[in-house]
Amino acid sequence: GDSVTQMEGPVTLSEEAFLTINCTYTATGYPSLFWYVQYPGEGLQLLLKATKADDKGSNKGFEATYRKETTSFHLEKGSVQVSDSAVYFCALRGGSQGNLIFGKGTKLSVKP
Amino acid sequence: DTAVSQTPKYLVTQMGNDKSIKCEQNLGHDTMYWYKQDSKKFLKIMFSYNNKELIINETVPNRFSPKSPDKAHLNLHINSLELGDSAVYFCASRYRENSPLHFGNGTRLTVT
Fold first, then answer.
1. Which of A64, B24, B28, B100 is deepest in the core (most CB within 10 A)?
2. What is the mean pLDDT of residues A64-83?
3. Average model confidence (pLDDT) for chain A?
4. Beta bridge pairs of residue A21
5. Which residue of B lies nearest to A41 if distances are taken between CA atoms?
6. Which of A46, A51, A89 has the CB atom closest to B43's CB atom?
7. What DSSP line would sit under chain B, residue for residue?
8. How many CB pairs under 8 A join A and B?
9. Region class of A35: left (phi > 0), else alpha (psi between -120 and 50), else beta
10. A97 and B90 in contact by Cβ < 8 A?
11. Cβ–Cβ below 8 Å for B92 and A87
């Protein structure tokens, strides 16, 4: 079945460092891909998405490009801030019901 | 104004009890969901429901049952609570198939 694999955390960075969180997927067809962010004590929020190959989703300085050839959707940010500390989930919309399938989440901690 | 609201935020109860978690969305969305997030942050879909059908993840014990009095509400009832039920439960909704999910802030259930 469809699945999402993302790098295990936690990831600890200093402020202004470059961030990459890897995400790869397995799916039939061409699913839509998403990154969600969960701040402490809150629910998940959509960060960005891409619906077809070579699309680049971007928001709040974060970017991810839908790479069909490598079945990847890596999240990147050029300069992280303390306020970016959260858990990040890669997800795809797949399956017969079109439900979201989440990766296991990657916790990011940014130190000042 | 919270778009997807869950109550209670925290729920501590003993094994064997029956409890309910309420969820309401004021977004006019057609489909609502319940997710379970374990201590390692792994998210698993439990149910999806719209006014046409209820779809149950086959791995969810039948002690869990969703009840929807109307389109804006999807409550989660849990019978005979077990220690392993301790987790954070998230309600979510979406407008239609390609729309993003909107999550509530979660209910932390602790079974002692």
1. A64
2. 97
3. 92
4. A75
5. B105
6. A89
7. --SEEEE-SEEEE-TT--EEEEEEE-S--SEEEEEEE-TT--EEEEEEE-SS-EEE-TTS-TTEEEE-SSTTB-EEEE-S--GGG-EEEEEEEESSTTSPPEE---EEEEE-
8. 48
9. beta
10. no
11. no
pLDDT digits (tens, 9 = 90+) for B17-44: 999 999 999 999 989 999 999 888 888 8
Residues of chain B predicted below pLDDT 50: none
- Report CA B95 to chain centroid distance, whole Å: 17
Q: Residues B80-93, buried b or exposed e (16+ Cβ, 10 A)?
A: ebeeebbbbbbbbb
At residue A97, the pLDDT reads 64
Q: What's the rounded mean pLDDT across residues A1-13?
A: 90
* A55: pLDDT strictly greater than 90: yes
